[in-house]
Amino acid sequence: MHVEGLRVRRGGSEAIAGLDFDIPPGRVVGLLGPSGCGKTTLLRAIMGVQLVTAGTVTVLGRPAGAPELRHRIGYAAQTPSVYADLSVAENLRYFAAVLRAPRSDPERVITEVSLADQAHQEVGRLSGGQRTRVSLAIALLGSPELLVLDEPTVGLDPVLRQELWSLFTDLARRGVTLLVSSHVMDEAGRCDLLLLMRQGRLLATDSPDHLRRRTGVDDLEQVFLRLIEREGTGETTTAGMASAQPDCRHDSHENGE
Ligand SMILES: Nc1ncnc2c1ncn2[C@@H]1O[C@H](COP(=O)(O)OP(=O)(O)OP(=O)(O)O)[C@@H](O)[C@H]1O
Q1: What is the rounded distance in angstroms from the CA atom of residue 24 to the CA atom of residue 244?
Q2: I need a surface site. Which of 115, 146, 165, 217 has the fewest CB within 10 A?
Q3: For residue range 168-213, what is the model confidence (pLDDT) as tens digits?
Q4: Measured between alpha carbons, how far is 238 from 81 in angstroms, rounded to an integer?
Q5: How far is CA 194 from CA 84, 106, 115, 176, 206, in A?
Q6: Which of 41, 50, 187 to mutate to test the pocket of ligand 1 (most atoms within 8 A of CB)?
Q7: Whose CA is nearest to atom 18 of ligand 1?
Q8: Where is the composition biased (Basic and acidic residues) (predicted)?
Q9: How much is the average pLDDT of 25-50?
Q10: In percent, how much of the chain has pLDDT > 90?
């Protein structure tokens, strides 16, 4: 994925104020930053559903929003788009048919998001965290090459969060690229690469380990604060827009971008 000179205006102000970065395939990439910093807007631009003021977004070698990308990208928005009056399995079967995903996919993805026990429950009667997982399961249908997930772990207990992050790492090992937004810093440490955003700009694009080394602090929340301080003193330019470093690679990368 390649983003260059991206600018977006929303509600009369600049939600994205000039972004440039690359995401190599087969990584778990965390998009982190405070509420309102532009994470959802960036994800929408990557999905091709956001009007942009300037810049280009290239996804899997095609312009964002190109029709042929529909079957190659899985997207779970922050607000789950699922049918409340259908069961989990019925929702999955419906979306699998729309996406022409393999017939065995609903069962597979229900297990992957740990919803097997709720498969026959109406979605409207599930908890918020369970509904989010239905949305995530839909994004996994058809085994997409890129998964774009907007805050998929909100409302989940630590055990489920851990399970989902293991699933993300597993998928990346199989060559899937994951872009996952979160404002929970303890999740940042699980990513191969972090995009740290603030007020529509990137503070840094780097692996958690490099960021720790660069700032001299271990806790990623403190790393973020350090980078903000440095930005105030004009030091962040070196904190840079580098792509993923060699030591944050997974073993296999089947998908070229
Ligand atoms: N529908 C909208 N109309 C106008 N402005 C919007 C709209 N949605 C978001 N914005 C503005 O765009 C900016 C970026 O919002 P965005 O939703 O991308 O942030 P975010 O980082 O995803 O926040 P959160 O973590 O709270 O979801 C904010 O200033 C917000 O007020």
Answers
A1: 7
A2: 217
A3: 999 999 999 999 998 788 889 999 999 999 999 999 999 999 999 9
A4: 41
A5: 34, 31, 29, 16, 5
A6: 41
A7: 38
A8: 247-257
A9: 94
A10: 70
Ligand 1 pocket, CB under 6 A: 10-11, 15, 33, 35-41, 183
ipTM over 0.85: yes
pLDDT at residue 111 above 90?
A: yes
Give how far the C-alpha of residue 14 lies from the chain's centroid of Cα atoms, to the nearest Å: 22
The residue whose C-alpha atom lies closest to atom 5 belonging to ligand 1 is 11
Local confidence band at 239 (pLDDT 50, 70, 90 cut-offs): very low
pTM over 0.95: no
Question: 11 CA distance to ligand 1 centroid (A)?
Answer: 9
The Cα angle at residue 23 between residues 39 and 106, in degrees rounded to 5? 75
Superfamily for the 2-72+144-247 domain: P-loop containing nucleotide triphosphate hydrolases (3.40.50.300)
**Element (DSSP H or E) covering residue 129:** helix 128-140
